[in-house]
Structure prediction request, 532 residues.
Amino acid sequence: MRLGVLGPEGTFSEKAARRWSPKADLVYFGDFEDILRAVESGSLDLGMVPLENSLEGAVPLVMDVLLELDVKIAGEMSLPVRHCLMSQNPGEIKVIISHPQPLGQCRKFIKEHYPKAEVRATGSTSHAAKLAQEFPEMAAIAGADTAEKYGLRILARDIQDGIDNVTRFALVGKEIPEPTGRDKTSMVVYLDRDRPGALCQVLQEFSLRSINLTRVESRPSKRGLGDYYFYIDLEGHISDGHVQGALVGIKRNAAEVKVLGSYPRA
Amino acid sequence: MRLGVLGPEGTFSEKAARRWSPKADLVYFGDFEDILRAVESGSLDLGMVPLENSLEGAVPLVMDVLLELDVKIAGEMSLPVRHCLMSQNPGEIKVIISHPQPLGQCRKFIKEHYPKAEVRATGSTSHAAKLAQEFPEMAAIAGADTAEKYGLRILARDIQDGIDNVTRFALVGKEIPEPTGRDKTSMVVYLDRDRPGALCQVLQEFSLRSINLTRVESRPSKRGLGDYYFYIDLEGHISDGHVQGALVGIKRNAAEVKVLGSYPRA
Prediction:
């Protein structure tokens, strides 16, 4: 089974993938969009991509690409994320480098301890470690085992801005798995613009049926400022009667509805 | 009047500030958090910071800091944003550099035309232009007039991923301005976790009173995965009777409500 993850070796998406399936044949990609396109085209069986983080919030690129492509969320996994600062030597650090998400998760640490360092984003935590291996003036933010993999010295541990730093990953494939009785469903709803109460009517379809929403997030529709898609995660499988009922109700009020997937709750 | 903007000279927040007040005494800062802290401490009268963009969505750092600090949104301004790629010479471009927001707004262009370039984030579009002035292998993404300011050649124009690219800025101060009859209010609501229908009850307080919501956005509470603040923008001033009525209703259902400001609609 070919499972796509962010590369090179040592990323958190690789860790999530290994935890989900120790035996999968991992394929490394340069960014999350390429992973999802490879799933859509069938050159990958599955892909592991981050959806949101408890400190930094949604991963916008992944949300936008999930809406665009013909793929399905088939699983979710939450991974505790602890970041370290690492470099070749503890000398002067001119550049702090990582993926944009960890840079956001460690913003307070960087501002407090390295206010003069240039903060630079790159494709992944492990790519940042690889660069720190090459350039002594750079320090990377990545997981502790990535320091070991790239022969770097850990300068500081647990540098994320909160104790409870967890990233929620999605396992993405082409099919929606069968219900397990303890599932979640992700969908995207697009409403007619500027109609007071439209979002409320949509949410009521769920509350009427006592369906618990675990996440409501908006993303720009890219059709103009103030025009949004709403991403809704809820408890239940898309084949459940009450979820089906809510979906019928929503379709009466929404201009567009797309089910991103149903999957066992983590 | 001292008005804080992102620096160095040539950023879009500077353009928004100049449009708002051609005569203000502009003060340049390295990041948006420092602008907002200077407003809170009183060393600035006002600050101009981006809230959201029609392609790339919310600016998470600004949302988090607005919630944390004792400041008020006192105005809003929408600025059309057109990006150019610029460098010293049209030779090989190894690095494409800009602020993370423009990099997101031009993602498709970069992926299509410069798939092998290293994409690097820095503090502002104008800082990127300054670096491109220094390093010939770098191309910056910034506005056309920034190319002129830094003596760079424009390699491509209008490279954002959509025609309608607009950034909405907030003018932030210490006081809420008087109602004009055509205002907006921004607030943040924190709900008790995992109560089905809680968000719906909050939104109903608005729809019952025919108050139009112009934005509903969530941000992690940083208290754990799946726990969010909801940012709500609505039409009306906080001193309006029906907005006051909604606020009273919301306070019955929400654990925490913070009014971020009321201001004339752009």
